[in-house]
Amino acid sequence: MSRSVLVTGGNRGLGLAMARALAGAGDKVAITYRSGEPPQELVELGCLAVKCDITEPEQVEQAFKEVEDAHGRVEVLVANAGINRDTLLLRMSEEDFSTVLETNLVGTFRVVKRASKGMLRARTGRIVLISSVVGLAGSAGQANYAASKAALVGFGRSLSRELGSRGITCNVVAPGFIDTDMTRELTDEQRKVIMEKIPAARYGEPDEVAATVRFLASEEAAYITGAVIPVDGGLGMGH
Ligand code: NAI
């Protein structure tokens, strides 16, 4: 396979693992990053790094142009970029809420809409949205984040219905607690409480999420769309 793949927020954490996995499968991978320099590892893998804040429409348009010039229209989009601003409801400002929604939901809408243009024309494509177990189960102190991640399920399933007959699949991956910068912010006490609820009794590895994304992006997954796939060690069972 040598498809044009774009992973948003692919410079670190889960996105970096996804970029590595897809490049390893032979795809032409582009990633977006927001600041600093993209990791040397990606440069060595031959990945294209484009600077882009998904909350800025012009930057999204510019990033797609750069990717299309280098690799052709985007055939696989992994909408991975996301943020959290955790706090209890009464302490949650309007800005805490809207910033998280603006990035995780509206930013995802923006990149998906832009990628879908080329996919519709080609009558083929793969869209993978990165949600979270807390979008399905809820989480105290994460009302903004959980709302944004739950919204991706309705968004993705609507797109599955809208785009399915054009050979485009849209699936949602719902990771549990994966060892990345995002979860390293948790206190030891929070980690202990969470660990007790995970049947697999460990945090997940970024590569385990990446393997699921790689499968959903593959030919073999052509008949899977509108699915919400947990990669959570059993944490979200029943949701
Ligand atoms: P991370 O914080 O290491 O990486 C997030 C990436 O998103 C970074 O590359 C960052 O630059 C990018 N990003 C954030 N805001 C952006 C914006 N406005 N424009 C462009 N890029 C932006 O986090 P991690 O853990 O790798 O998370 C990746 C995705 O997986 C996120 O959507 C997160 O919500 C989700 N997730 C993570 C879990 C975990 O346990 N680490 C669990 C469930 C979901």
TrEMBL record:
<dbReference type="GO" id="GO:0006633">
    <property type="term" value="P:fatty acid biosynthetic process"/>
</dbReference>
<feature type="binding site">
    <location>
        <begin position="9"/>
        <end position="12"/>
    </location>
    <ligand>
        <name>NADP(+)</name>
    </ligand>
</feature>
<dbReference type="InterPro" id="IPR057326">
    <property type="entry name" value="KR_dom"/>
</dbReference>
<keyword id="KW-0521">NADP</keyword>
<dbReference type="InterPro" id="IPR002347">
    <property type="entry name" value="SDR_fam"/>
</dbReference>
<keyword id="KW-0443">Lipid metabolism</keyword>
<feature type="domain" description="Ketoreductase">
    <location>
        <begin position="3"/>
        <end position="181"/>
    </location>
</feature>
<dbReference type="InterPro" id="IPR036291">
    <property type="entry name" value="NAD(P)-bd_dom_sf"/>
</dbReference>
<keyword id="KW-0276">Fatty acid metabolism</keyword>
<comment type="function">
    <text>Catalyzes the NADPH-dependent reduction of beta-ketoacyl-ACP substrates to beta-hydroxyacyl-ACP products, the first reductive step in the elongation cycle of fatty acid biosynthesis.</text>
</comment>
<feature type="active site" description="Proton acceptor">
    <location>
        <position position="145"/>
    </location>
</feature>
<keyword id="KW-0560">Oxidoreductase</keyword>
<feature type="binding site">
    <location>
        <begin position="145"/>
        <end position="149"/>
    </location>
    <ligand>
        <name>NADP(+)</name>
    </ligand>
</feature>
<dbReference type="Pfam" id="PF13561">
    <property type="entry name" value="adh_short_C2"/>
</dbReference>
<comment type="pathway">
    <text>Lipid metabolism; fatty acid biosynthesis.</text>
</comment>
<protein>
    <recommendedName>
        <fullName>3-oxoacyl-[acyl-carrier-protein] reductase</fullName>
        <ecNumber>1.1.1.100</ecNumber>
    </recommendedName>
</protein>
<dbReference type="InterPro" id="IPR011284">
    <property type="entry name" value="3oxo_ACP_reduc"/>
</dbReference>
<dbReference type="GO" id="GO:0051287">
    <property type="term" value="F:NAD binding"/>
</dbReference>
<feature type="binding site">
    <location>
        <position position="178"/>
    </location>
    <ligand>
        <name>NADP(+)</name>
    </ligand>
</feature>
<keyword id="KW-0444">Lipid biosynthesis</keyword>
<dbReference type="InterPro" id="IPR020904">
    <property type="entry name" value="Sc_DH/Rdtase_CS"/>
</dbReference>
<dbReference type="GO" id="GO:0004316">
    <property type="term" value="F:3-oxoacyl-[acyl-carrier-protein] reductase (NADPH) activity"/>
</dbReference>
<feature type="binding site">
    <location>
        <position position="80"/>
    </location>
    <ligand>
        <name>NADP(+)</name>
    </ligand>
</feature>
<keyword id="KW-0275">Fatty acid biosynthesis</keyword>
<comment type="similarity">
    <text>Belongs to the short-chain dehydrogenases/reductases (SDR) family.</text>
</comment>
<comment type="subunit">
    <text>Homotetramer.</text>
</comment>
<dbReference type="InterPro" id="IPR050259">
    <property type="entry name" value="SDR"/>
</dbReference>
